[in-house]
Amino acid sequence: MPGSAGVSRSVPVETDRVRSAVPVPKSRAEVQGEGSINAVIRALSPREAPPPVIVALASGTFLVTLVDHVRHWSPASSIRLQPDEILPISVEILGIPAPLAAAWSQAPFYGIVVAQSQIALVERSSRRVAVVIDRATGVAFGPGTRFVVIYDKRTSRTIALDLHASFDQDVYFGNNSSKLSDVAREQLLALGMALQSPSLGNARFLISGHTNSVGSDLANRELSFRRAVAVRDHLIRNFGLAPEKIDMYGFGADRLKFPHAPRHPGNRRVEIALVIGEAL
User: Domain for residue 10, yes or no?
Assistant: First the structure.
């Protein structure tokens, strides 16, 4: 993640609004209704365990060490890799680095393919891509991008997420601003009430900011992070959430909600996901 660089390019205010997975409440009384809160709790409930390769990446320093070890390897392929993709026979699968192989029981069954901007963990027998890792950010995506592992350079923390136990929250900001609007505060009312539920007492969450493709990568990452901070601070200040229950991350334009329309205002959102694993 970049340092505290300023945003060098303005981003226009959204003029279009996309329906959120959590409806904007009409009144505080409606939000306090049992149905509204339970709907959010169900959305944040884990459904199944992540695959072993995701667990391995989230354990200890495996992900960080892997990315660092292959940082200077020459790309074996210039293709873009996707989880569940079957690689052609022409793509060479390299071995897991010895220090990591010694610490991972599944290592003999996997290999590595290094592309220009990605690293892939590949099942040797099937040549199926199990996980794709972005070399620049250290974000690892599993099949269907349901399970995600993130190494946050700001905190030196590795966490695993279940994106099926998450929802998008459309948040509206002024031009090049991380200040919450009145509309955003109203939308966050349902989320804040839900996260106060005793059912989620031991749960931890990642608040991630996202932008559309307008602006530079660095500017978008910083802008998305500041917006995540704004949402986090609002939830702590107004709903008494413990700061240690919330992590933050700025994806910039890396995870577009509408990838075929990268400048679409609906790509500018905040997402809240359940943390399912962590290694400090």
Answer: no
Q: 35 is in which domain, residue-wise?
A: 28-48+156-279
Question: What pLDDT does 169 receive?
Answer: 63
| DSSP state at residue 141 | E
Task: Examine residue 148 and state whether it is found in any structural domain, yes or no.
Answer: no
- In this structure, is residue 213 part of a structural domain? yes
Alpha carbon 243 to its chain centroid, in Å, reads 19
Rounded to the nearest 5°, which phi and psi values hold at 192? -60, -40
* Three-state SS at 195: helix
- The reported pTM is 0.66
Structure tokens at 209: 């900011």
CATH number at residue 221: 3.30.1330.60
Of residues 124, 113, 132, 128, the one with CA closest to residue 75: 113
How many domains does the chain contain in total? 2
Residue 144 clears pLDDT 90, i.e. is over it: no
Residue with the larger pLDDT of the pair 172 and 32: 172
